[in-house]
Structure formats: C-alpha cells, structure tokens
Design goal:
This protein is mainly alpha-helical. The chain is built from 13 helices and no strands. It has 3 domains: about 60 residues; about 100 residues, Receptor-associated Protein (Up-down Bundle), CATH 1.20.81; about 70 residues. Helix 5 packs antiparallel against helix 6.
Amino acid sequence: MSLINFFENLSLPREKTEKPKNNHMNSAILSKLNLDIETQLPKHETRFDELRDELLNLLLKKYMVAALLIGLMLLSILTSLEISGMYLVIVLMIYIFLIYYPQMKEQRGYSDLNQELPYALRHMSIELKAGRGLHDSLITIKNANYGSLSREFTRVLEEIKFGKTTEDALLEMTHRVKSEGLSRSIHQIIGTLRVGGNLASSLEIIAKDISFDMQIKLKEYSQKLNSFILIYTFIAILAPVISLIMLMAGSTVMGDIISSELLFVIYTIFFPLVVMFLGLLIKKLEPKI
C-alpha cells in the first residue's frame, strides 16, 4: 500500500507553459483611458531593416572579416592586382552603406520639414490671431498635412498628454530634429510662454525670414551648380574620350602603355565612381529647404 500511494502521488516536473507577460499595456485599458495605442508600441522595422541588421551582424563577426581578408589575399595571388582592387572596393562600399544606412534614412525622413515649416508657422500665426490657444494650434498642425512636421507635433502632444511639460517636449523635438528654422521657432514659442508677448506676430516674422533665407540659399546653390556642371561634363564625358584617344595614339607609337585589365578597371570602376562622387557632392550641397 505504501508503494501504491508513492506512485499515485509521484509527479514529474512540468515545463512552464505560461506565456511571457506582455510588457505593453492592454489595448482595452488604453482605449478606455482615451490614449493613443500606436504611440505606446514600438515601431516595427521594415523587412529591409531586418535584413540589414542581420547582414551587418554577420559581416562584423571575426570569422567573416577573416574570410574576406583571406579571399582578398587569394585574389591578389591568383589573379591580377586590378581584380583584387575591384573586390576590395566593392566590399568597402557594402560596409559603408550598411553602417551609414540608418543615418541616411533618418535624414531622408526629415527632408520635407524645412519646406513645410514656413507654411506651418503662418498657419499657427493665423490660428493664434483667431484667438485659439497654443495647444489648439499644435493640434491643427498635427491634423494638417505637413509631413514630418505633423508627425513631430503629434509626438509632442502625446508627450504633453502623458505628463511632460510643454517646454520640455518642444525642446526635445529640437534635439531630435536638426533644423535651424525649427529651433528658432521653438525657442521663440518657449520665450513667449515664459515672459509673454505677441506670439502670432513673432511666428509670422520668423516665417518670412525663413522664406527669405530659402531664396538666398537657392540663389547660392544655382551659382555653385553652374561651376559644377562644367566639372561634371569634363569628367563624365570629355575625360574618358580624351584619355582613350591619347592611349590609342600612344599605343600605336610606343606599344601597350597600360594593360587591358587596368584599362577595364579605369572605365568600369574609376570613372563611374568619380561621376557618382560628383553626383553625391552636388546632392550634398543642395540646400535643405
């Protein structure tokens, strides 16, 4: 009987099958509290971002770096120097793109902010002159179609709703977004909140100044672009043709001046890279307006 009772009461340890607790608040509770659910949940990355993270983690591992270096050594031994140079340039370009992609994506996300800022400031000025408060004006800008500026104001209003002061929320927005005009506008708003003043007139003046600065920057950019067009035309069109003619003329007199592999690298990698670099430089000089 003791043995029977022992086997009846015997129980093996069971694996825990409880689901992990959800770190986020229940959506039903959030909806009853009239809170925005989307602002509480983290934004999901795109499939390309996930692939980029996985590939970057793989390429940064020691054995992967060692394998790439071994491949470079084998190519330099078994093939010509030009082929190994092409391999090295391609690998470096892949590393640079994967590392700096988040910064490029972030800058591209705020590319329209400076363009929409003067119109949004005039909109706020009209709202304030009509007798509406600052928060109501921010809600109007949030609901309007001002691109990334509307998204940032949405975040500011949500932070204010969850207990943050208006000044802190606006200052954090200036730290997130690198825009001289936006920073100037926010500091003007904060100064008016502290000491008082006619905020509508101040915002209208700032909008006019930003528009005038845009015109000046566009004029300067057009002047720089005229000189770059000459350089771009010479390097992209004239330099390859003149180089080829000079090489052909020299080869008929002195024989092969450079090898066919090096000539292939020059015309398939060097000149395209120079043209790409000039295009990126022109894009970099473009005013953010």
